[in-house]
Amino acid sequence: MVAKQRGRTEEQERELKVIVEVFSRHPNVWRLLSSPDVASSEKRRLFKEIFAEIGKDSFSLLFLLLERQRLFLIEQISESFSYLVNKEQNRRIVIFTVAIKPNNEVCARLTKKIEDVLGCKVLLKVEIDPRIIGGGVLAIGDKRIDGSIASDLERMKRFMVYSNRSGSVRKDNKKFH
After folding, report:
1. Are 176 and 163 in contact (CB under 8 A)?
2. Which pLDDT does position 41 carry in this prediction?
3. Which helix (H) or strand (E) holds 147?
4. Which of 58, 85, 112 is the last residue of a domain?
């Protein structure tokens, strides 16, 4: 990685995320810069104006993607770059989904516990989803640990439906119906 050789790994990662964020928040910028009706020199000028804070390498990549009509790849490139940086620095992204936002102390304790179990640095991303009712869901790579109340209720519902179908008997010796 060029960024690693230049000692700019973290900066490059942040810059790529900023670029993706700008495009996702301002779709008109995306359309303008992707338009074949806008001259290449005008696009370069607009790029310099909009992305004045990004480094030379990020700018060059961005403009190369633009010239090759591959700007749509920037999000995938950013995600892949972050993956490589995380792998290089022994970091894992863990997504913690809860019904209400936990306080910083809870997040810090959970992060520490996960780091101890995984043996690596953890970047905890908290997502709020009121549908889970309570408890939480941890997503670590392709693994999912579901401790949500919604999941418990769903399991209970399936159990009760299955029990009713199999003709289970109640304590008073009458069949469920």
Report:
1. yes
2. 85
3. strand 143-148
4. 85
For 110, the domain range is 90-165
Number of domains in the chain: 2
Structural domain contains residue 67: yes
Tell me what the pLDDT averaged over the chain comes to. Answer: 88
What pLDDT shows up at residue 116? Answer: 97
The answer to whether the beta carbons of residues 47 and 62 sit under 8 Å apart is: yes
Q: Say whether both 41 and 115 belong to one domain.
A: no
Is residue 75 located within the same domain as residue 132? Answer: no
CB 57 within 8 A of CB 8: yes
Please give the model's pTM, rounded to 2 decimal places: 0.68
State the chain's maximal CA–CA distance in angstroms.
Answer: 84
CA distance 46 to 29: 9
